[in-house]
Amino acid sequence: MSVEQMLQAAEPFARAVVVEAAGEDVVGAHLRADVDADGWVSHAFEALQPGYRGWSWVVSLTAVAADAEPTVNDLVLLPGAEAIVAPAWTPYRDRIRPGDLGPGDVLPPDVDDLRLVPAWSAGDGEVEAADRQAAQELAGGRTWVLSLEGRDMAAQRWHDGAGGPHTAIAQQASGTCRTCGFRLGLAGALSDRFGVCANGMANDDGRVVDHEHGCGAHSGVKLSRATAVQELPQPYFDTLTRDVVARPEPTVVEPEPVAEELVAEEPVETPDAAEPEIAVEAEVVVETAPEAEASAEAAPDAEAPADTEPESPESL
């Protein structure tokens, strides 16, 4: 049996090491045994503690001979393919964004920063042919000056930023910064593309703006309509004054004419005995059924013989 075979068979020993270090309740099933090098085998066990799904305990064992006792090199908790891990580390310099610097913070440039070049070789054609002393005079005593790459990067950043021509306020402006009286010119190679806004009422006051940028505070803006105060219409719902509603005229209903023979006058008694009795004419309509009218007409004919005297025998 080789040393590697002996170490691969030492699974109980590797489990005992993990249980002693982490506890029996957090050590799961044996996952694998990997041969890392000659005389070096790593045993992996499933990690059961909450929040470590996909992680595993890994124990590295070594031995000098196949009949020797294994030795523990290290014990680590490693993430697997399905483990939840923190994002990749981002260097501090790469995490800084514009506006992150505060009072007392420093941010030195990189040693090989392509945005800067020595003052005696600034990169411009007019400086390349000059000597060191003349270049330092043009640099104003500065040791480092902006390179051509740094100037182009700044110009592209300003063009794409809030002071560029692609913003919503520039698209709606009637004029551009190129023709605005509040624009201050820049010196140097970028003077034909950018300027500085000097309008205290503009959004970009004191900032570098593209010549094709613009806003509503242009020096040539004129009002297209009168600014006089317009009289507002009456409110639809008046909540200040009282509503005056005209009361409608009373409607007089004429009584319907009735037959004279169907009208009867009857006194109306008032419920209050203290008040005088007032006779009220009431119209009473008596409806007569057809059968009653027929019997009333036939009654006189039936009673007629009773009113006449009986004939005597002498008349016969």
TrEMBL record:
Residues 257-280, 304-316 have a biased composition (Acidic residues). Residues 281-303 have a biased composition (Low complexity). It comes from the Bacteria. Pfam families: DUF3027. InterPro entries: DUF3027. Residues 251-316 are annotated as: Disordered. This is DUF3027 domain-containing protein. It comes from Aeromicrobium alkaliterrae.
